[in-house]
Give the backbone structure.
Amino acid sequence: MDGSESLRLNGPAPVAIQVAADLGFFVACATGCFILVAESLRLSVARRSTPLETLSSNAYGLYLVHYTFVVWLQYALLTAALFAVIRAAVVFGGTLELSLIVVLAAQRVPLGAPLIGAPRRAATTS
């Protein structure tokens, strides 16, 4: 008797129960996604966060430059004796900081601002 036989009691479940389980899983996943979106919208309207607004306004530039830092940091930590979770946190944090520094520096250069996606500023009317 192999491992798969020990999990079955009396054979596979009837098709109706399998379909009901699959539909229930689909409804639960869709409901969870809608709840996550609703809570995110409710919290984002309730209060503004300066760090999150900075990330939001520079998202395209971060997207453009982040890959280089991900690869470099992963390669640098390849031989480090760290748990994978710690290594992932270091790569995520380092990538976020280094990418943001590069994007903000590039926006200050005349040619870099249009290339990297300078954040839009409100037009002043005088």
